[in-house]
Design a protein that fits this description.
The structure holds 2 protein chains of 2 kinds. Chain A is an all-alpha fold. Chain A is built from 3 helices and no strands. Helices cover about 75% and strands about 0% of the residues of chain A. The longest helix of chain A is centred in the middle third of the chain and has 26 residues. The radius of gyration of chain A is 17 Å and the shape is elongated. Chain B has one domain. Chain B is mainly alpha-helical. The chains are: A mainly alpha, B mainly alpha.
């Protein structure tokens, strides 16, 4: 089918983008840049899974994308707060942090 | 008809997604890269998922709504946490004309391991 070919072409293009994103994880200059690149790589992978679900017209790849979204959010938040305060799972203290921060 | 709309959305989503990844490669510092990651990449994924939902049944539609809503809530929070961590670590702003208007110069917290 012609329309499904568009989905498969999109999956291929996103695979290329995923490779670029993973390479940019490797060439990041600092840990936070690496974190951003990893975040984008996960988003690209989620788009790939979504297009894959559209290509095969099944919903199971979207379950994986949902799990990936949750896992990516928690890991990004934990890593970022570890880099910032060295205490990822506690309430930040001191002026200028937390609250309206 | 919906299949053609889905095709257009896929092309649009791929273009936005490509811009997001290109931003990660090209932008000079974390703060500008966060623009690409938190806006372009999220928007691209959302458009692609909507394109998927157009051609699928209710099970696909329910999951797409769930994922897009979840991403819309979590992406700004994650981007804010990353930016706060970068500022806390003293990441330089390499973008031309960038000004740190926060008024605070943050240093790494003291390590206790000597």
């Amino acid at each position: 089918m012609r329309h499904q070919a568009v989905f498969f072409a999109g999956v291929l293009w996103l695979a290329v983008l995923l490779a670029v994103a993973v390479l940019s994880v490797g060439r990041a200059r600092s840990t936070t840049e690496r974190l951003v690149a990893l975040d984008v790589a996960v988003l690209v992978l989620m788009g790939l899974l979504g297009l894959g679900a559209g290509a095969v017209r099944r919903s199971y790849p979207l379950d994986a994308a949902l799990a990936l979204a949750l896992l990516s959010f928690v890991s990004t938040l934990a890593a970022a707060r570890y880099l910032g305060d060295r205490r990822p799972f506690e309430q930040p203290e001191g002026p200028g942090e937390g609250g309206t921060g | 008809m919906t299949a053609w709309i889905a095709d257009v959305l896929i092309v649009l989503g791929l273009a936005v997604m490509t811009l997001g990844v290109y931003g990660i490669v090209r932008f000079p510092d974390v703060y500008t890269q966060l623009h690409a990651s938190s806006k372009a990449a999220f928007l691209g994924v959302s458009i692609l998922l909507v394109a998927t939902a157009l051609g699928g049944g209710p099970s696909i539609l329910a999951r797409v709504v769930l994922i897009v809503a979840l991403l819309a809530i979590t992406t700004p929070v994650a981007a804010h946490a990353i930016a706060q961590a970068a500022h806390h670590q003293g990441e330089p702003m390499r973008a031309p004309g960038a000004v740190d208007q926060s008024g605070t110069v943050r240093r790494l917290p003291q390590r206790h391991d000597g």
